[in-house]
């Protein structure tokens, strides 16, 4: 099967967004937790969290103009903080339901069986029970003009990892925590680690 | 286990890059094919290809100053084109070996059992046998100052999909093609699609 760029433009919208959202490969499956100035909490699924660098430890995610979780964005701008929590097998249905367009004053924590957790002085809510949880601080937003999207960059302030996932050299075996991966807009896949190949040198 | 930002700065380098590269969740596993002005081909593994938008259909990937595949970058600037090919189970070892630092005049296609494929007039090489192959044209590069990295944005010109992966609504079941996902710098995981939940509305 082949689609040219012209074919893609002509596709019916739902077909097109399913196709182009799933053609890039597997995506990370995260819940972003945030809190408004007034103290309303928010949690929303994101599938674009990407590693940017390890010193300083920064991650980015894509915010589309039409995406649901604009509450997340406003909260991050207002408070400067958010959390990233990995979606694991037991919570996929509730995690995906956070993509529904709730008003800003309704917390997705109240509409699902996801539970808030607070750590120390950190203002934004974590999602209880996730095998990896990160306290993030907002660094910058970068505008990507060609598609009218923004990359939001955050720095890791605290990284919590379920002990059994962490290997001796710092590698995190996500599959031991039943961390999920996303295909397209609504597909949840469970990966299994097959192999590590180490650092490669020319033959 | 918890790491603060300060802890992360103090970690030994290899431990730190393993940790921070694997903490963001599962990553896409792609081979980028390119060709120099002189006709030397290049193929290199990337784990940061991200969906940016579907109309126009654009994808981005992160280029770090210290990353190996600088040949890929120069080729893209010189020719304006590249290919994205999904890494599947049968080629993971060769795919990962493309991360070795070969000189620009040595083609990774000659150093591995990966084979070049050309389609129509498109200048850059595809990787033969991959269940998804995309012909891409360079759109823009966006500088992310906070970590001195670039996002390279490309537009999909042609999208080739193994028929059996494509569902009636445009969703691509990557797991039917044994497409892999990457953890950290060198872990290859095989995901299995568990469930699709569809579009969500408030309860």
Give the topology string of chain A: H per helix, E per strand.
EHHEEEEEHEHHEEEEEE
- Biggest sheet strand order of chain A reads 4-3-7-10-11-6-5
Helix content of chain A: 10-25%
**Oligomeric composition of the shown chains:** homodimer
Q: List low-confidence stretches of chain A.
A: none
Number of distinct helices of chain A: 5
User: What fold name goes in the CATH topology slot of chain A?
Assistant: Pnp Oxidase, Chain A
Counting DSSP E segments of at least 2 residues, the number of strands of chain A comes to 13
Largest β-sheet summary of chain A: 7 strands, antiparallel
The CATH architecture name of chain A reads Roll
The overall number of domains of chain A is: 1
In short:
Two copies of one chain form a homodimer. Chain A is an alpha+beta fold. In chain A, 18% of the residues lie in helices and 38% in strands.
Overview of the structural elements:
2 copies of one chain form a homodimer. In chain A, strand 3 and strand 4 form a beta hairpin. The model of chain A has no long low-confidence stretch (mean pLDDT 95). The longest helix of chain A has 10 residues, at 13-22. By secondary structure, the first copy, chain A, is of the alpha+beta class. Chain A is globular, with a radius of gyration of 18 Å. In chain A, 53% of the residues are buried. In chain A, the strands form 3 sheets. Chain A has a 7-stranded antiparallel beta sheet with strand order 4-3-7-10-11-6-5. In chain A, strands 2-12-13 form a 3-stranded antiparallel beta sheet, with no helix packed on it. In chain A, strands 8-9 form a two-stranded antiparallel ribbon. Chain A has one domain (29-186): Pnp Oxidase, Chain A (Roll), CATH 2.30.110.10. Chain A starts with a strand and ends in a 7-residue tail after the last strand. The first copy, chain A, has helices spanning 5-10, 13-22, 70-79, 92-97, 108-111, and strands at residues 2-4, 27-28, 30-35, 41-46, 50-54, 57-63, 81-86, 116-117, 126-127, 132-144, 149-161, 181-183, 187-196. The first copy, chain A, has 5 helices and 13 strands. The interface between A and B is large, with 110 and 110 residues. Strand 13 (187-196) of chain A pairs antiparallel with strand 13 (187-196) of chain B, so a sheet runs across the interface.
């Amino acid at each position: 099967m082949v689609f040219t760029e012209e074919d893609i433009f002509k596709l019916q919208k739902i077909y097109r967004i399913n196709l182009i959202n799933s053609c890039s490969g597997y995506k990370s499956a995260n819940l972003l937790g945030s809190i408004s100035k007034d103290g309303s909490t928010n949690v929303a699924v994101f599938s674009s969290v990407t590693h940017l660098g390890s010193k300083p430890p920064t991650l980015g995610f894509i915010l589309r103009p039409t995406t649901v979780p604009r509450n997340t964005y406003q909260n991050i701008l207002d408070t400067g903080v958010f959390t990233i929590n990995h979606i694991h097998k037991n919570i996929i249905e509730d995690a995906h339901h956070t993509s529904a367009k709730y008003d800003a004053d309704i917390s997705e924590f109240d509409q699902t069986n996801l539970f808030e957790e607070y750590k120390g002085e950190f203002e934004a809510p974590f999602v209880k029970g996730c095998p990896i949880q990160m306290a993030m601080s907002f660094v910058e937003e970068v505008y990507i003009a060609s598609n009218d999207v923004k990359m939001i960059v955050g720095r890791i302030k605290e990284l919590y990892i379920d002990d059994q996932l962490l290997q001796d050299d710092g590698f995190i075996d996500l599959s031991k925590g039943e961390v999920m991966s996303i295909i397209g807009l609504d597909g949840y896949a469970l990966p299994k680690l097959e192999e590590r190949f180490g650092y490669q040198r020319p033959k």
